[in-house]
Amino acid sequence: MSPHGPVRVHADTALLAKAAATGLIQRVADAQAEFDVAHIVLTGGRNGNALLHELSLTPTLGAIDFDRLHVWWGDERFLPAGHADRNETQAREALLDTVPVLPELVHPMPASDGPDGDDVEAAAARYAAELAAAAPAGALVPTFTLAMFGVGPDTHVASLFPGFAATEETERTVVAVREAPKPPPTRITLTFPAIRAAHEVWLLAAGEDKADAVAAARASTDPTKTPAAGAYGTGATLWLLDRAAAAGLQEH
Ligand SMILES: O=C(O)[C@H](O)[C@@H](O)[C@H](O)[C@H](O)COP(=O)(O)O
């Protein structure tokens, strides 16, 4: 599967969030019809949270059966539970606290005051085990219906930053990241083997500060140099942009 799937360009970030919310509902409803259960991977960041907030306002959200929806995260800032900067906290505020999700189907990455304390490597291993427990036979992670990733200005996705060893991981599905260039410095992240188990991957980017990163990632096939180029699904990969983030693309 090519890492450079089609691009959808929206006039602004609000329309990007609305279109993405509608698309997510359709994909989850289709997966629940076909496979009974759907698994989605949430992203942190402004665009990821804007999408979740838009979902909470979307009338067709009722097409999703939350009794059959597993929610995972692509990465997490390794902070105490409930910390305002945790992706989980922000996702709960943006959407999860407003919908009837089943707590046992919501899978946050461990917090720094969780069962492993500040041992971020043990916490990463714990999440890998949780993914494996929900995986089909022979797999290490569930077949994610949809995995979403914001794209950083340096082309990072999740907490896979350019040049970091985590971008070269081929065995483990979840690893710890230390000294991340985007604060906070200690994080937990899915690796490319986990990301590429997704049926569909979306890359979200908005704003002129992302135009160079989008152009660089779509011109590259080196996932260590430009991690966004390494995030793709088995069935589809879609880049959801606003006009500002697409400005560096010849194709648009
Ligand atoms: O934990 C995080 O910080 C996010 O998961 C990160 O990967 C984010 O998605 C990108 O940095 C884009 O963030 P913005 O959408 O806010 O630019």
Automatic annotation (TrEMBL):
Pfam families, per database record: Glucosamine_iso
Keywords: Hydrolase
One GO BP: pentose-phosphate shunt
Catalytic activity: 6-phospho-D-glucono-1,5-lactone + H2O = 6-phospho-D-gluconate + H(+)
Source species: Embleya scabrispora
PANTHER family, per database record: 6-PHOSPHOGLUCONOLACTONASE
Protein name: 6-phosphogluconolactonase
Protein role: Hydrolysis of 6-phosphogluconolactone to 6-phosphogluconate.
UniProt pathway: Carbohydrate degradation; pentose phosphate pathway; D-ribulose 5-phosphate from D-glucose 6-phosphate (oxidative stage): step 2/3
